[in-house]
Amino acid sequence: MTSLSAVNNTLYDTLTAKLPPMLAKSLARAPSLPSLPAVALEVLEVARSPDASLQDYASVIEHDPALTARLIGAANSAHHLNAAGSACTGLEATQRLGTDATIATVLSFTLLKDIEANETAVPIWQRAIAAAAIASQLAQKLCPDRLGYVFTVALLQDIGVLALQMTFPAQAQALYERHDQSHMQLAQNERHHFGCDHTLVGAWIAARWGLPESLVHAINESHDSVFTDDNVAVCVRLSGPLADAWLSANPARAFSTLLYELSVSNTEHVVILEALFYAMHRQIALLSDLLKLAIPLPLDSVEVLTEAKQLLYQHALVLGARLQAQQETLEALESRHGQLLERSRIDPLTGLANRAWLEEQLHEHFARCRLEKRAMTVVFIDLDHFKALNDEHGHGTGDEVLQCFGQALSSLVRATDVAGRYGGEEFLIILPDETAESARQLAQRIMTLLDREPMARSEFGPLYISVSIGIACLEDGMFASEHELIAAADQSMYHIKRSGRSGVAVYGH
Q1: SS3 category, 386
Q2: Beta bridge partners of 505
Q3: Quick one: DSSP state of residue 86?
Q4: C-alpha–C-alpha distance, residues 375 and 431, integer Å
Q5: DSSP string of 104-156?
Q6: In a 10 Å sphere around its CB, with 0-12 CB exposed, 13-18 middle and 19+ buried, how is residue 371 labelled?
Q7: Within a 10 A sphere around the Cβ of 111, how many other Cβ atoms?
Q8: In this predicted model, what pLDDT tens digit does every residue of 436-448 receive, in sequence order?
């Protein structure tokens, strides 16, 4: 392993500190963690440069005879039999393979030389190859100057899985052999078993190798949200879910779900994916064959994408219907809530505000009017001889009187006033921005209406009632609370009661 720079030492220590302590100790003691020889590190260093040529790759690779032989063998494989002549040198091999296949071949040769002996690693390496091929296709559209970098990060994004497999073979076999779990579920299970997922372990491995800091961070963030303005990150973070869809038992359904999730926030990415879909198939097949990693399902690109779009359309229709139903349910609930709220504020007999709502409104108006130095008046009303009326005519007639009086009050007050039944035969009117004099005028109109109109009828004829009214105005006293204001109006009302009933009294006047 190459020595780490001071900066990488700091990064390595930081990532070690982020690992769960027991996991950090186990990884540090593991005898067979994935490792990269100097030649592979130099190849990755070349890949960082947007101006790197195939000659640059060949110059590094030719220092390792075994790796050069592997590249030449790959270049002369069945995929390249139509090329004129055979590749005999590292440069000829890299020219024939291209950048992506060269990097993939180097890393697979150095990290997983005998893949057949490590069956649990096969699905992870298949995903890595598919993700790298997809990321490369995306990068050609979104960030062509970072193509080699994107390919490398996508290829290494799951390297932490190999490290966990090598360090905890028994646990890893049970964890990674479950084919019914998504990659997201796999990461959740890793956090449950190991205390973190493989992205952090992969970043730690990359820092241990001495890879550039940006590449280390990119591996650590490779499974983060795809909804970002960083095109390099988009290529890497989309590559994994797309690879999962490609390798799933039902690729069309998996693609339709992914396309829908993307279309909600970024239609541009959907358009790019559809345009690159067919190229992905060829690129994945090429890399898989070169690295002797058979993709489990030979896919028909046209058929899969067509079916995915149909499923996406059906999904959108179903979702639209569900949203419509949910909206209707929500509107019904809101209407029901409004009705219940209204009922909780209304006295059922008179249709006026009940006492609880009166007191809440009185508290709010009192505080606001006093703070803003505005006028406010309350009118306290008591029906005269109501007990005698009930005793003589019955409670049914008494209820009729209360109901009719409530309707009369509603017809006389403004929309900004609050009229309600305070209790029994007592009523209260809250008059914001009104003086005692205007309240007196309202009281007089109430009494005039009662003189003119009966509030009920009995077998003996129409029943007329009278009322005793007390008025208190915020301006006419040093009232510390709304309760003192009510008490003042109540006191004025009782003054009328004691004076013979059927009249109006104003507190302080």
Answers
A1: helix
A2: 470
A3: -
A4: 9
A5: HHHHHHHH-TTGGG-GGGHHHHHHHHHHHHHHHHHHHHH-GGGHHHHHHHHHH
A6: exposed
A7: 19
A8: 999 999 999 999 9
- In tens, the pLDDT along 303-341 reads 555 555 555 455 455 545 555 666 666 666 666 665 655
Give me the DSSP letters along 166-224.
HHSHHHHHHHHT-TTS-HHHHHHHHHHHHSS-HHHHHHHHHHHHT--HHHHHHHHTTTS
Give the span between the Cα atoms of 404 and 419, in whole angstroms: 14
Closest by Cα among 218, 80, 209, 86 to 148: 218
Inter-residue contact 493 to 505 (CB < 8 Å) = yes
Residues with pLDDT less than 50, the chain: 1-7, 78, 80-81, 114-116, 296-298, 312, 315, 319
Domain boundaries, the chain: 32-111, 355-506
- How far, in Å, are 129, 153, 173, 291, 294 from residue 285 at the CA level? 10, 20, 27, 10, 8
CA distance 467 to 404: 14
Is 468 in a helix, a strand, or coil? strand
**Between helices 159-167 and 169-176, what is the axis angle to 10°?**
130
Q: Can you give the pLDDT at residue 4?
A: 38
- Structural contact between residues 202 and 160, judged by C-beta atoms closer than 8 angstroms: yes
Q: Which helix H or strand E contains 73, and what residues bound it?
A: helix 65-75
Can you tell me the distance from the alpha carbon of 253 to that of 410, in angstroms, rounded to the nearest whole number?
A: 62
Q: Write the CA distances from 214 to 3, 104, 195, integer angstroms.
A: 18, 20, 24
Amino acid present at 407: Q
Structure tokens of 50?
Answer: 């947007």
**Rounded CA separation 361/408 (Å):** 21
Which CATH number among 2.60.40.150, 3.30.420.40, 3.30.70.270, 3.40.190.10 corresponds to the domain 355-506? 3.30.70.270
Q: Quick one: 414 exposed, middle or buried, by C-beta within 10 A (0-12, 13-18, 19+)?
A: exposed
Place of tokens 């890497």: 236
Side-by-side strand order, sheet with 467-473 = 418-423, 426-432, 376-383, 467-473, 503-506
Give yes or no for a contact between 283 and 133, defined as CB atoms under 8 angstroms apart.
yes
Q: Where are the beta strands (DSSP E) in 230-273?
A: none
Q: Is 412 helix (H, G, I), strand (E, B) or coil?
A: helix
With a CB cutoff of 8 Å and minimum separation 6, the contacts of 407 are 350, 351
As beta bridge partners, residue 388 has none
The C-alpha atoms of residue 93 and residue 80 are separated, in whole angstroms, by 10
How many CA atoms lie less than 13 Å away from 375 in the CB half-sphere? 13
